[in-house]
TrEMBL record:
<keyword id="KW-1133">Transmembrane helix</keyword>
<dbReference type="InterPro" id="IPR055342">
    <property type="entry name" value="MreC_beta-barrel_core"/>
</dbReference>
<keyword id="KW-0133">Cell shape</keyword>
<dbReference type="InterPro" id="IPR042177">
    <property type="entry name" value="Cell/Rod_1"/>
</dbReference>
<comment type="similarity">
    <text>Belongs to the MreC family.</text>
</comment>
<dbReference type="GO" id="GO:0005886">
    <property type="term" value="C:plasma membrane"/>
</dbReference>
<keyword id="KW-0812">Transmembrane</keyword>
<dbReference type="Pfam" id="PF04085">
    <property type="entry name" value="MreC"/>
</dbReference>
<keyword id="KW-0472">Membrane</keyword>
<feature type="transmembrane region" description="Helical">
    <location>
        <begin position="12"/>
        <end position="29"/>
    </location>
</feature>
<dbReference type="GO" id="GO:0008360">
    <property type="term" value="P:regulation of cell shape"/>
</dbReference>
<dbReference type="InterPro" id="IPR042175">
    <property type="entry name" value="Cell/Rod_MreC_2"/>
</dbReference>
<protein>
    <recommendedName>
        <fullName>Cell shape-determining protein MreC</fullName>
    </recommendedName>
</protein>
<dbReference type="InterPro" id="IPR007221">
    <property type="entry name" value="MreC"/>
</dbReference>
<feature type="domain" description="Rod shape-determining protein MreC beta-barrel core">
    <location>
        <begin position="108"/>
        <end position="255"/>
    </location>
</feature>
Length: 280
């Protein structure tokens, strides 16, 4: 009881102020219909603001979960869309089973961009269906790399920003194709070679994947940022703005070509002139 008396003696001015303010607000709220409406409107705005704040906070913390769900949905749709036609079959399961490509998702837990040979590590391994030579795409479908080695729970991937990484690329508006690789300088650009000088090339043209065992056809690689003649003058030397933003990549989509091993065993020896670099 003595402590309570001391508390009131110490804070009585504050308590008196709060009591008087509450009385004044109550009197104002019941004085006229206008004052009641004004106070109600102010209270409604304040309440709505608090609800919006709490909702925005909840949305922020659920954003990562929603992104993962969206990526998983993209992987399922990609698998279904890549399905081979099957006679007398209309079910989704049968179409998926006949697909030459299987898609899944993963999260990047380590990434390098400042070396000549860059790699990144993902949080899935062989226990979750990840295999060597699976292609790696960004969430919006751009070429990002491929799986080099797996453990049970993790996998190391060769980045598109690796001088040993090459992929066949063609122009979306015509059938001219060449080899795409990184020159080790700028993480925003890669180089397209072996395009003949008589081929029409313009800044802004789109280049997509072609003749690749790791990647489905027509996956975005980049857009033409500059064109110059090669040293021998017979081909273009084309600078591409890379579609994959490797400096800001946190999640990826993995793709496995069902016939990779069979075709690699069959055709690999006939492409031995490129044996020192990873196959496209």
């Amino acid at each position: 009881m003595y402590r309570l008396i001391l508390f009131f003696r110490k804070y009585y001015t504050v308590l008196l102020f709060i009591l008087l303010e509450a009385g004044a607000i109550s009197y104002y709220a019941h004085a006229t219909s206008y004052s009641r409406a004004t106070l109600l409107a102010a209270t409604t705005r304040a309440t709505a603001g608090l609800h919006k704040l709490f909702a925005s906070t909840g949305d922020y913390f659920s954003l990562r979960r929603d992104n993962l769900r969206l990526l998983e949905q993209i992987a399922r749709l990609e698998t279904q869309q890549a399905a081979r036609p099957v006679a007398d079959s209309v079910t989704v399961d049968s179409l998926t089973a006949a697909s030459p490509y299987y898609f899944t998702t993963a999260r990047i837990i380590s990434n390098s961009i400042a070396r000549q040979e860059n790699f990144f590590v993902i949080d899935k391994g062989s226990l979750e269906g990840v295999e060597e030579n699976m292609g790696v795409l960004t969430p919006d479908g751009a070429v990002a790399g491929y799986v080099r080695q797996c453990s049970d729970r993790y996998a190391v991937c060769v980045s598109v920003l690796n001088r040993a990484f090459t992929i066949g690329g063609r122009f979306l508006h015509n059938e001219y194709f060449g080899s795409v690789g990184w020159d080790g300088t700028d993480a925003r650009f890669v180089t397209l070679t072996d395009i003949p000088r008589y081929a029409e090339v313009s800044v802004g043209d789109t280049v997509v994947s072609a003749y690749s065992l790791r990647f489905p056809p027509d996956r975005f690689i980049g857009t033409v940022a500059g064109v110059e003649a090669s040293e021998d003058g017979t081909t273009h030397l084309i600078r591409l703005r890379l579609g994959a933003r490797m400096t800001a990549l946190s999640h990826v989509v993995l793709v496995r070509f069902a016939d990779y091993d069979e075709l690699d065993e069959l055709a690999g020896p006939f492409f031995s002139d490129t044996a020192n670099t990873p196959k496209p």
